[in-house]
Structure formats: C-alpha cells, structure tokens
Amino acid sequence: MSLILAFDPGLANLGYAVVSEEKNVLKLHYLDIIKTSSKEPLEKRLYDLGSSVEELISHYEPSAVCTESVFLNMNQKSVMNVAMVIGIIGYFAARAALPFHPYSPLQIKQAVTGQGRASKEQVQQMLFHFFPTMRGSKVFHASDAVAVAYCHLKMARFKSFMVK
User: Fold this and answer.
1) SS3 for 56?
2) pTM score, two decimals?
3) Residue of 28, 43, 86, 124 with fewest CB within 10 Å of its CB?
C-alpha cells in the first residue's frame, strides 16, 4: 500500500491529508491542519511549516506528495504567501526524493465531481461519498487536501491506464 501526502497550502492554515488506495479501495488515514500565527514574523511561520512538512514526510513515508497550486484570482499578497508555502512543500518532497505533483483547482474539481466549476459544497459532498469517515470533520482546509489526494490518485490511475 502506498500513501499519498496531500496539502491544501496556506500560510495561516496548511491543510494536509494522508490517503491510500489499494485494490480500488480508498482509505483516509489522517487529516488535520497546521496553523501559524499572523503575529509571528513571516520567516518563522515558513520555518515552522517547513519543519512540519519535513516531519510529516518522515513519519508517513509517502510514495508521493501533492498540493493544490496557486489560484491566481486571489489577492497578490495571498498568492505570494501560498506560492512560498508550495515551494517549501516541493523542497521537502525533493529532499526526500519523492515525486511532487501540484494540481490546479480546476483539475481537482474535475477529478472529484466531474466538472471543473463545481462549488466547494459539491466537492465536499463527493468527498463524503468517497471517504465516509470524513463526515463530521470540522477541518475545512484538511478536507481540501483530501480532494487534492483524490485528484492525484485518479490522475495516477489514468496515467497507468494510458501506459498499458
């Protein structure tokens, strides 16, 4: 069984999920968020997130790391902060010699719901269908990370099918 470590990147809230698929059965192992305080300097927040990402990779030993990419309709400051967090995630994935896969919001929504313009509620309903243990989770950013993991698994399945 190979684990996927997926992230919903954010400077204040970094959502993450650990998901696997074995014999076409999906399993959600863990989901949570890592919080940083806006009262801390940017470099401290980035360092803390990097340390947490490194620890998660070491603990779960995933076969791949994936993240949502920057959504360009965000304000410029948010885009820069999210881009820095994505860079940190990619750095620690590379350091662990793991494949790193960023997916656009459109790709994620398409993979989960079948339509790229789906609402967050539609995505969440489909995730509850695929991962019933998510019901009742109050960790919104972490549920977005589950969607990223699902997208990665679906894309990997598609790529392996195309190779055959």
Assistant:
1) helix
2) 0.92
3) 43
Query: For 67, how many CA atoms within 13 A lie in the half-sphere containing its CB?
Result: 24
> 143, 125, 127: which is closest to 30 by C-alpha?
143
* pLDDT, one tens digit for every residue, the chain (164 residues): 789 999 999 999 999 999 999 888 999 999 999 999 999 999 999 999 999 999 999 999 999 999 999 866 667 878 899 999 999 999 999 999 999 999 999 999 999 999 888 988 899 899 999 998 887 666 666 889 999 999 999 988 765 554 55
For the chain, the straight-line distance linking the first and the last C-alpha, in angstroms and rounded, comes to 21
Angle between helices 120-130 and 105-113 in degrees, nearest 10: 50
CATH 3.30.420.10 at 3-163, yes or no: yes
